[in-house]
Design goal:
Layout (H helix, E strand, L loop, with lengths): L8 E14 L8 E14 L3 E5 L6 H9 L6 E6 L4 E4 L11 H11 L4 H6 L1 H8 L14 H14 L4 E5 L7 H15 L4 E5 L3 H7 L2 E4 L1
Parallel strand pairs: 3-7, 3-8, 5-6, 6-7
Antiparallel strand pairs: 1-2, 1-4
Helix pairs in contact: 2-5, 4-5
Bound molecules: adenosine-5'-triphosphate.
The site of adenosine-5'-triphosphate has 12 residues, from strand 1, strand 2 and helix 1.
């Protein structure tokens, strides 16, 4: 991980716009939906930035643009040489593969080698509290178990910028508290975190700065 000053800008968004083509069936022309428009801000090294907004405000879309998963239709995202990975609870896992293999694949997508992920597997297993379930296919997991796996992988294999989409809002109360405590440690370290949340109070509690969409 890179260390540096808190006033280093590591990613800049300049007037970013994203629109989606919406199909209207066979006999009508598609139209366009402007999911994001004119978004400009800087992300500083080491900060924890909360992104809030109502359903459909474009929060998940914004994280995808920052992660480079989708390209903006206007404006630009300038990455000053950092890795940014998106953690969501819905996507990313192969249900047929066991938790361990999913952790390895996830880590490799963030630029780690298999050996590097394996070296952290005991920590991931312990934090997630999945135990022997780590050897079971992810399709047999409950949604809470999936979120524990995703969160634990992200915590132990952090890219320079960790993009978290609603990951603190699931799981049982106990795990949520443990996850939040772990997040607080990251926040007080060099780790840069962008956190999307429906909960304004959670953002107030966890983040140093917030952006409303
Ligand atoms: N692939 C897509 N094709 C068409 N429209 C899309 C697509 N992805 C998102 N949208 C639309 O863009 C808007 C923003 O979606 P996004 O998922 O970014 O919102 P959000 O703020 O994360 O919402 P939520 O709080 O409900 O998770 C929504 O109106 C959604 O319908």
């Amino acid at each position: 991980m890179m260390s540096g000053q808190k006033d280093d800008v590591i990613i800049s968004l300049r007037d970013v716009g994203v629109r989606f083509k919406r199909r209207k069936g066979l006999f009508r022309k598609p139209d366009y939906y402007q999911a994001l428009e004119g978004i400009s801000f800087d992300i500083y090294r080491g900060e924890t930035l909360g992104i809030v907004g109502r359903n459909g405000a474009g929060k998940s879309t914004l994280l995808k643009v920052i992660a480079g998963i989708i390209q903006p239709d206007s404006g630009e995202v300038i990455n000053h040489g950092v890795t940014a990975s998106l953690l969501t609870l819905q996507a990313g896992f192969d249900g047929e593969l066991p938790g361990t293999d999913n952790a390895i694949v996830g880590g490799m997508l963030m630029g780690y080698t298999r050996k590097q992920v394996e070296a952290r597997m005991d920590d991931i297993r312990e934090f997630s509290e999945l135990g022997d379930f780590m050897e079971q296919p992810v399709k047999t997991y409950s949604s809470g178990m999936r979120s524990r796996l995703g969160f634990s992988v992200a915590m132990y294999l952090s890219p320079d910028v960790l993009l978290l989409d609603e990951v603190l809002s699931v799981g049982d109360k106990e795990f949520k508290q443990k996850a939040e405590a772990e997040m607080m440690k990251k926040i007080h370290s060099d780790q840069t975190v962008l956190l999307v949340s429906h909960s304004e109070s959670q953002v107030e509690r966890v983040c140093e700065r917030k952006i409303a969409l």
